[in-house]
Design brief:
The protein is α+β, with helices and mostly antiparallel strands. It has two domains: 3-116 and 248-260, Diaminopimelate Epimerase, Chain A, domain 1, CATH 3.10.310.10; 122-243, Diaminopimelate Epimerase, Chain A, domain 1, CATH 3.10.310. Helix content is 18%, strand content 43%. It is built from five helices and 17 strands. Strands 1-2-3-4-6-7-8-17 form an eight-stranded mixed barrel. The longest helix has 13 residues, at 72-84. It is globular and about 55 Å long. It starts with a strand and ends with a strand.
Length: 262
Amino acid sequence: MPVPITWVDAFADGPLTGNPAAVCLLEAEAEAGWMQRLATELAISETAFVRGLGDTFSLRWFAPSAEVEICGHATLAAAHVMRAEGWADDGGTVRFTTMSGELSARLDGERIELDFPADPLAPCEALPPVGAPERSVIGTMRSNGFVVLELADEAAVRAMQPDLAAIVELEDSILLVTAPGGDSGADYVLRTFAPRIGIDEDPVTGSAQCALGPLWAERARRDVLTAVQVSQRGGRLWVGVDGDRVHIAGRATSVLRGEVLV
């Protein structure tokens, strides 16, 4: 039976920006191997699979080479598609059962706001060279899901030439590079590299704000911030920190809609 699929640009100010995700709305449980093969076939950073479970929805995310535990942009994309297809109402909140526990998305007009768990950072040992301008390195931190390299300014983040072979060898395979915002007009900027799971550079990473939001909120002494991911496609996020929860908001737009025939 064909499965509907929608290609969505998430955390995007318009089509063909932000981070693309594919969303499949499933009427029945699907086999994990099939979901992984489809994600590999699509070759974008994540493909999301949604299935109804009564009052909540099962949500799983697959990168091109592995299932992932948490993903922000594909969650935002899933909520966007669910509203478009009548699975959710504007102004309401959608609750998801995931590998990372219960997550939710509040549908609020153009913006969709995710409620995710904070991912606290702690200082850690210096990294081997990974392509950042050496004189710009301020420090290194580690969270449950990321290694974070803090640089001096936005220009250094933009100038980084990632050494993907070195990044693959890191104990935690996802590297975040961040600095205070400059010309972007944001409170902070970031880039994300995850070659071990088939994503050399992620265009916009919602889940990264679980670690970076609390860091920059403490620095700025404010709970509401803006972030810009300075990748080639780029994307803007609104980030709110509330204790052990992080609210991550952005816009999404549908680009393609069709059916998976196999």
